[in-house]
Amino acid sequence: MTHVLVAGASGLVGNAVLRAYAQDKNVRVTALSRRRPHLHGAGFLALDLMDAQACSAAIAPLRDVTHLVYAALYEKDDLAAGWLAEDQIARNDAMLRHLFEPLAATARGLQHVCLLQGTKAYGAHVRRIPVPAREDRDELKSQANFYWNQEGYLRSKQSNAHWEMTIIRPQIVFGDTVGAAMNPIAAIALYGALLKAAGEPLHYPGSGPDTAFEAADAELVGRAIRWSGTTGQGRGQSFNVTNGDVFVWRQVWPAIADALGMKVGEERPQLLARVLPAQSGEWDRLRHKHSLTAPSLMEFAGKSLAYADLLMHRPDDAHGLPALVSTIRLRSAGFTEVMDSEVMLRDSIMRMQAQQLLPPR
User: Fold this and answer.
1) How high is the pLDDT of residue 82?
2) Is the dihedral of CA 348, 352, 354, 359 positive or negative?
3) Disulfide check for 325: which of 133, 272, 313, 359 has CB 3.0–4.6 Å away?
4) Would you give the end-to-end CA distance of the chain in angstroms?
5) How many helices and strands (H and E) does the chain possess?
6) Is the pLDDT of residue 79 over 60?
7) Which of helix, strand or coil describes residue 4?
8) What does the pLDDT look like over 220-255, one tens digit per residue?
9) Reduced DSSP (H G I as helix, E B as strand, rest coil) percent helix, strand, coil of the chain, to 5
C-alpha cells in the first residue's frame, strides 16, 4: 500500500495535500506537524522538526513510507527580512535533514519525494524577475535561499537511492487554512469580518498602482502534488503552479466583498499588521456572538497580516513586479487543471464560513 508522509500538514499546502488524498482508500496518509491540522482521514504525528532526537525516534517506525511531501516551513516574525536571513536559511535546512536522515534509513521502499519551493527560486524577493519565469532558465541560485540548501541536500542523497524527486513552485497560495504563515485570504477575511461587525463596507486597504498577480489555489496545488507522485511524467522535474489566470486586487475586491456579504467601500490605505492586532477584543466578541470555532485573532492570522500588506502596498518603483511565471512545463507534462481566481477567493471564504471560522455571510 502507498503510504504518504506529509511534513508541514497544518500549513496551507500541507493540509490541501491531505484533502487531495482523502478519497483514496488505497493510500495511507500520515500528517506531521507541530499543530494538529484538520486530518481528513490521515493519521497524525506531532513533531518539532528542530528536535533531531525526537525526529529519529518518531520516524524510526515508519518503515513503509513510500512518498514524502515536504511542505514544512519556518518563517520569522519579520517576514520579508527573514527571507534573506542566514539563520532562517540554516533552520529550514536543518528541519529537512532532521526528518530525512532517519526516514532514508528506515523507509527502504521510498519511491518519491515532493519538495515545496516557490517563486523566490527566481529571486522575486530581491529583483525584477524575467517574465515569465521558466523552470529551466530563470532560477537565481546565486542568491542565498534555503530552497537551494534543501534541494542540494536531497540531490546528494539520491546518489545511491531508488526514489525520485519533484519540485513544486506555486505562486501566491490561497485557501481556508488559518494560522498559516502566508495566506492572504485569511488576513483579508479577518479584516472584512471586523469591518462588517462595525457596520462598515469592505474598504480597500491597499495602495500603489494596480499590479497583475498570479494565484495558486491551495486545493489545486494539493492535487498537483498528488499527481507528481503518481505519474512518471512529473518525476525528476520542477514545476511552476498557478491557477492559469491573473488578477488585480482592486478588480477582485467586489468578489471578496460579496462573499463576505458586504458592499465595497472606499480606498483607505492601511497596514493590516499594524491595525488589526489592536482589535483582538472585538474579534473575541465576534467569536462569542456567532459561536465560531475560530481561534484568537493572531492565531487565526498567523503571519499572514504582514504578507497581505506586502502584496497590497506596492510603490511605483516596486522592483520585483510583475512576478509572472510560465506553467507550460506543467501543462505539457499532463497536469492541466485551472481555477478562476475569483471563484477561488469566494470558495475559500465560503469554506471558512461553513467551518464557522468566520461569521455567516
Assistant:
1) 80
2) negative
3) 133
4) 42
5) 14, 11
6) yes
7) strand
8) 999 999 999 998 888 899 999 999 999 999 999 999
9) 40, 15, 45
Q: How confident is the model at residue 321 (pLDDT cuts 50, 70, 90)?
A: low
**69 φ, ψ (degrees, to nearest 5):** -110, 115
**Helix ranges (DSSP H) in the chain:** 12-21, 52-59, 79-82, 86-106, 146-157, 184-197, 218-230, 249-259, 272-275, 280-289, 297-301, 304-312, 328-333, 341-354
Cell of 138: 530563470
In the chain, the amino acid numbered 151 is: E
Structural domains for the chain: 2-172+217-241 (3.40.50.720), 175-215+246-324+341-354 (3.40.50.720)
Cell numbers standing for residue 85: 536571513
Chain-centroid distance, C-alpha 21: 17
Render pLDDT for 135-185 as a digit per residue (tens, 0 to 9): 988 888 888 999 999 999 999 999 888 999 999 999 999 999 998 889 999
**Residue in this structure with the C-alpha cell 499527481, named with its chain if needed:** 227
> Regarding predicted confidence, which is higher, 124 or 107?
107
Please choose, from the candidates 308, 79, 281, the residue with its C-alpha nearest in 3D space to the C-alpha of residue 186.
308
Dmax over CA atoms of the chain, in Å, equals 63
DSSP-assigned states of every residue in 347-361: HHHHHHHHTTSS---
Residue with cell 471564504: 349
- How confident is the model at residue 320, as a pLDDT? 45
Beta-bridge partners for 309: none
Note the pLDDT tens digit of each residue in 20-35.
999 898 999 999 999 9
Encoded amino acid at 188, one letter: I
DSSP state of 129: P
Contacts of 258 (CB under 8 A, 6+ apart): 346
Give 113's Cβ-side CA count (13 Å radius): 24
Per-chain mean pLDDT for the chain: 94
Predicted confidence band of residue 316 (pLDDT cuts 50, 70, 90): low
